[in-house]
Amino acid sequence: MTHPVRGKAACVGLATAGVGEAPGRNAMEIMVEAVHKALDDAQIPLSQVDGLFAATAFHSMASMSLAEHLGIQPKFSDGSNIGGSSFMAHALMAAMALDYGLIDVAVIAYGSNQKTAGGFKSISEPMPYEAKYGPRNPLTAYALAAGRYMHEFGATREHLAHVAVSARQWANLNPEAVMRGDLSVEDVLAARMISDPLGKLDCCLVTDGAAAIVMTRADRAKDGPKTPVYLLGSAMEHHHRMISAMPSLTTTAAAKSGPRAFEMAGYGAKDMDTAQLYDAFTINTILFLEDLGFCAKGEGKDFVTGGRIAPGGELPVNTNGGGLSCVHPGMYGLFVMIEAIRQIRWSAGDDEGAREEGGWIPDTRLCVAHGNGGVLSSQVTTVWGHGDTL
Amino acid sequence: MTDYFSGPGPEGRFKAYLAEGKFMIQRSASTGEHVFYPRTINPGTGEADLEWVEASGDGTVYATTVTRQRPEKGGDYNIALVDLAEGPRMMARVEGIAPDQVAIGMKVKAKIGESGGEPAVIFEPASANGEG
Questions:
Q1: So what's the architecture of A137-204+233-328+343-385 in CATH?
Q2: CB contact under 8 A, B92 and A133
Q3: In what helix (H) or strand (E) does residue A110 lie, and over which residues does it extend?
Q4: Chain B partners of A242 at a C-beta cutoff of 8 Å?
Q5: d(C-alpha A78, C-alpha A355), whole Å
Q6: Measured between alpha carbons, how far is residue A90 from residues A80, A209, A216, A240, B1 in Å?
Q7: CA–CA separation, A338 vs A41, rounded Å?
């Protein structure tokens, strides 16, 4: 039986702003710029926006602050913050609110000027029972998971390095990516160690950046100038807040959210034309490839080698260059969804800007965009599809 | 008999025990399972039946990392996740051994030390060669 939320809402506009560095502009200002450009992309006036979703590390009540700055009065507002995966959760809630007729136009937004404002920005409280030992979260948590993964499955730092190298190769095809240039496995291994086994190039970028998407019900999604991209499936799950409370450091809640999202979509991992996976650290990509079913547990270390997830490989993964090489302004989830949606739009003939040969993937109809939040904590999977896939 | 919810909460009690030099964890009377970190009710089942018991202090390193830090700021230090013999897992530091010599599977023993300016559970290798 088809799930009642499947395909009921679509992304009809999107934009990013301030990607990389946005000197002199604050987090709200670049977020509003992204909203303005996304609405222009959708050709929907601001006055029609009646559902607003936002989360940042700069605003305790982001959707209220954003609505006020925009000068709108949303009928449905949500600022739920479950870390970098918040925006995938917002997409599910937006689809439900649209489908129930509570709203007609939803905007999901994010903005951060952490790079030009002084570095990594978090509003996380210190973790009780952990903070006294001096963890540098989120880094420490991911280092512990990476080390445990290596122990259980015989993985090496070289395996992790292949994730960073593949991401950089995608970034080299994307003029919008912040970090470009040659990168070898040896370069990744030689980078300064930060928290064993993770070196500097196993870690995501610290950048500025804002993003926004516009969603409407399927019945009016075709009215706009851009190819609508439908939310076919979405599911969330979290198992812990602190890394010390994570049941297994080598299996994330994506092993639960992924199958439910795919079931809702009516498609499986094997049907995905690209996989956009929240890569805050190199270990993420490996864990999510396994947990979402692209390979078996323990096989991710080999799956990422041999160029399999790089340009020209059998599974295009993180085709914008990912959080490792494209952009990572603190909470990266909205950018993950945008890349999934843009690949589908480009294949449908929309103008998505120029990329080097191979940077856009022909015949892309289905993409998974998977979000991660906290310390491998909150996992939200979304499956996006072209109208032909409905 | 005082009410289960009266008096200091679990965090306050845990810290008070630590200040007395005791590493105490909880056990659910209904399930018999041990609990850490200190909870208000039994996680998962919701029973208000957590009792305090002294931890054996025996543990096994489940995961470990070396936080790299410049010498002038104090140098590298260890952070580990330790599985207690009673079942629960906790974050802690393993001392008495170089930070990069702490290994997954190593048997460790708890002591009450100090970290972050307050009493803390610190682990040391259970034997000189860590195989204890």
A1: 3-Layer(aba) Sandwich (3.40)
A2: yes
A3: strand A105-112
A4: 91
A5: 35
A6: 8, 18, 13, 20, 48
A7: 13
List pLDDT tens digits, range A74-124: 999 999 999 999 999 999 999 999 999 999 999 999 999 999 998 888 888
Chain B: residue whose CA lies nearest to A239 = B44
Distant-in-sequence contacts of A351-356, Cβ < 8 A, 24+ apart: A353/A175, A353/A176, A354/A175, A355/A173, A355/A174, A355/A175, A356/A172, A356/A173, A356/A174, A356/A175
- For chain A, the first-to-last Cα distance in angstroms comes to 14
Give A132-152 pLDDT, tens digit per residue. 999 999 999 999 999 999 999
Put simply, the answer to whether A134 touches B115 (Cβ < 8 Å) is: yes
Is residue A65 helix, strand or coil? Answer: helix
CATH code for the domain defined by A9-118+207-232? 3.40.47.10
At residue A351's C-alpha, the angle toward residues A348 and A357, to 5°, is 85
The ipTM is: 0.96
Q: List CB contacts (< 8 A) between A151 and chain B.
A: 63, 104-105
pLDDT at position A1 is 74
* pLDDT confidence of residue B132: 44
Gap between the Cα atoms of A171 and A161, Å rounded = 15
| Beta carbons of A135 and B67 less than 8 Å apart | yes
From the list A131, A143, A145, the residue facing B116 with the nearest CB is: A131
Q: Where are the domains of chain A?
A: 9-118+207-232, 137-204+233-328+343-385
- Residue A98: C-alpha distances to residues A92, B19, B114 (Å): 10, 55, 54
Task: Report CB contact under 8 Å: A242, B63.
Answer: no
Hunting for tokens 């209904």 — which residue is that?
B30
Amino acid letter at B99? P
Residues of A in Cβ contact (< 8 Å) with B89: 244-245
Residues 6+ positions from B27 with CB-CB distance below 8 Å: B33, B34, B35, B50, B51, B52, B53, B86
CB nearest to B67's CB, from A132, A140, A147 = A140
